[in-house]
Design goal:
By secondary structure, the protein is mostly helical. It is built from 2 helices and no strands.
Amino acid sequence: MSLDTADLPSDPDALRAFALACQAELRAAKAAVRLTRLEIEKLKSKRCVCPTGVTVDGSVCAAAALVFLA
């Protein structure tokens, strides 16, 4: 439901239903963004689990590097 393509109804009940549908769509989009952010953070945390301090892509994991430097 995009306001760009929607013809807003003149009937108050229909307009209310349209507004509720838009709110529901917005809530669903926000939930999808939150889920994606959580998945990104999960992947970031998994990237640094190699005990040698070097990740699969060859970069050095700061947390593991500190352990080896201590």
